[in-house]
Amino acid sequence: MLHIGIVASSAEGAALCYRTICVEGADLLGPYNHPEVSMHGHPFIQYKNCIDANDWAGVAELMLSSAEKLAKAGADFLIAPVNTVHQAFDLVAHRSPRPWLHIAVEVANEAKRHNYKRLGVLGTRSLMDGPVYRNTLKAAGIEFRVPAADQRERIHHIIFDELVLGTFLPRTQAYLTEVIRGLKDEGCDAVALACTEIPLVMTPESSPLPMLDSTRILARAALRKAVEG
Hints:
The protein is of the alpha/beta class. The chain contains 10 helices and 7 strands.
């Protein structure tokens, strides 16, 4: 089996990704078994400072630093269980010592498997306003919708002021449920949880639309790649 390298950013998203690989690895491979996994993460404040400054070159350097460390630890390929940093992906991929899986590509692949035609996308401000999902979904022939500007701003602050800090409140789940209901009214047939912490506050039962959980989708793609070799 291949050795998975996790380039961590926020603790909650990275932990959920790691746990998914380990738990679902046992479902595939037998009790207590999963592929070898290594993880490296710089202090999240370094990523946040770069993101706030729109410094994607700085984000890329952090990702490449982790990639180098993970390659030396023996990782065969890499994943980053955080959507926003993929805005720097084009600055990373050609310089990386190991190949990567791209989180938005894996979400688009999952959407195509379910024949979804129009996705609502929830994430940080730069993720919802930026090219990562817009371009990836367009290339896959899938339409893209985001919430209204005031909702995008509130979701952004929910992510940074609550979710990445491990705070998951009933009122936040209720608010996100209403946002997703609005996306359903716009004709979306599923919603991409394109923030790796949102799956920790939203459940399939609370969502008015089928959820594409980017964290677990990426973890499962990495698990399949590792097992298939």
